[in-house]
Design brief:
This protein has 247 residues and is an alpha/beta fold. 38% of the residues lie in helices and 16% in strands. The protein has a 6-stranded mixed sheet, with helices on both faces. Strands 1-2 form a two-stranded antiparallel sheet. The longest helix has 19 residues, at 29-47.
């Protein structure tokens, strides 16, 4: 009988590549191929193009905008341009009395957005009874801070950016959510709350993320802030707190 693998139990607790075997002086070919496949998926996620038409079909009334980064190559080299709304898009955004706007941005993984953004938006929207929500904005070549320009143009009190996170070698389709109170150009990252690692295979579920985001949004409006001054509840506290606020 082959000796028992001492790493077997640990591998069930993490997606990290631990205790990899050897074939002579090299890694086993199966592990090498797995690594190369994961690297290829990460690269594809970064360079994939957002299917805006499919997103607009899934979210009627959504508005399409884009940043000042005119191509994917420019976007990757110039993060600053991805943070600014292109001037040609300004007339698409009309100010109103909105409590919140949701921005769906490609970020660094269009794959994550195509797989997770719509069900994530639907999960949280169902938890926001009484909110005045602006039309969803779909943004390409987008960084998180692009939501500041969008939220400011719409006059929204809150901006929630659903964006593709930087892909890694274990997950290439993880969605991040960034919430900002009183969004406007120049807002610091410390003034945002982040919910990360939202995806359907081992990450944060849409329901769990929806509970947390809805709680944060209600608390943000009540306290008039987001970021380091707003600490999210954890575990069972978020749904309970949200129910208390609704009641």
């Amino acid at each position: 009988m082959p000796p028992e693998d001492p790493w077997a139990k640990l591998r069930t607790a993490t997606r990290a590549r631990i205790g990899l075997g050897r074939a002579g002086d090299a890694m086993k070919i199966a592990d090498v191929l797995d690594f190369q496949f994961a690297h290829a998926k990460a690269r594809d996620a970064v360079h994939a193009k957002l299917d805006v038409a499919a997103l607009k079909a899934a979210i009627p009334g959504a508005i399409e905008v884009y940043s000042e980064a005119e191509s994917r190559e420019v976007y990757l080299r110039r993060p600053d341009l991805g943070r600014r709304l292109h001037p040609d898009c300004a007339d698409k955004l009309h100010a109103g009395e909105y409590d919140a706007v949701f921005v769906i941005g490609d970020g660094l993984s269009a794959t994550a957005v195509m797989q997770n953004a719509v069900p994530m938006y639907e999960a949280v929207a169902a938890r926001l009874k009484g909110f005045k929500i602006a039309p969803v904005v779909i943004a390409t070549q987008a960084r998180v801070a692009l939501g500041d320009d969008i939220g400011e143009a719409l006059g929204a009190k809150l901006c929630a950016v659903l964006i593709g996170e930087r892909p890694g070698l274990t997950v290439s389709d993880s969605l991040g959510i960034y919430l900002t109170y009183d969004p406007r150009r120049g807002t610091k990252d410390s003034a945002r709350n982040c919910i990360s690692n939202v995806h359907a295979h081992g990450g944060l579920s849409y329901d769990a993320a929806g509970d947390m985001l809805a709680w944060l949004m209600r608390e943000a409006l009540r306290r008039k802030l987001t970021g380091v001054g707003l600490k999210e509840a954890s575990g069972l506290e978020a749904p309970a707190a949200m129910a208390a606020l609704e009641g």
